[in-house]
Amino acid sequence: MSRKKSCRGQLKPQRRNLKMDSRFNCPKCHNEQTVQCKVDKSDKIGIAYCIICEASYSCKSHNLMCPIDIYTNWIDEVENEENDVE
């Protein structure tokens, strides 16, 4: 004798992978959505630049870095420069 299979419930909906932004506010000219960040994984360089004021920032990157990491590094550097001036 075999047991009767129980009824399975509905499948749970899968989570969507939300894409992270790659456009941010410029720390130099304070315009919104003007900074573009790119991560070049082959050269291991991260680049952030403003379209309007042409301010740019580049840093070394690794495989786990994403555009928000490049942007936050730039923000930290700008804040450190402001603190050094004062």
List the helices and strands and how they pair.
Elements: E1 23-24, E2 35-40, E3 45-50, E4 56-60, H1 67-85
Antiparallel strand pairs: 1-2, 2-3, 3-4
Task: Give a summary of the structure in a few sentences.
It is found in: Nucleus. The protein has 86 residues and is of the alpha+beta class.
Question: Can you tell me about this structure?
Answer:
This protein has one helix spanning 67-85, and strands spanning 23-24, 35-40, 45-50, 56-60. With 86 residues, it is of the alpha+beta class. It has one domain: N-terminal domain of TfIIb (Single Sheet), CATH 2.20.25.190. It has a four-stranded antiparallel β-sheet, covered by helices on one side. The longest helix has 19 residues, at 67-85. The radius of gyration is 22 Å and the shape is elongated. The protein starts with 22 loop residues before the first strand and ends with a helix. The model has no long low-confidence stretch (mean pLDDT 87). Belongs to the ELOF1 family. InterPro entries: Elf1, T_Elf1_sf. Transcription elongation factor implicated in the maintenance of proper chromatin structure in actively transcribed regions. Its main location: nucleus. GO terms for molecular function: RNA polymerase II complex binding; zinc ion binding.
User: Kindly, what is the distance between the CA atoms of the first and last residues, rounded to a whole number of angstroms?
Assistant: 84 Å
Strand content: 15-25%
- Sequence of strands across the biggest β-sheet: 1-2-3-4
Q: Percentage of helical residues?
A: 10-25%
If you average the pLDDT, what whole number results?
87
Structural class: alpha+beta
Tally of extended strands? 4
Largest sheet: 4 strands, antiparallel
CATH topology: N-terminal domain of TfIIb
Order of helices and strands: EEEEH
Give the tally of structural domains: 1
Query: If helices are DSSP runs of H or I spanning 4 or more residues, what is the number of helices?
Result: 1
**For the CA atoms, what is the radius of gyration?**
22 Å
Question: Architecture in CATH?
Answer: Single Sheet
Could you say which overall geometry the principal axes of the C-alpha atoms support?
Answer: elongated
Low-confidence segments, ≥5 residues, pLDDT <50? none
Question: Which CATH class is shown?
Answer: Mainly Beta
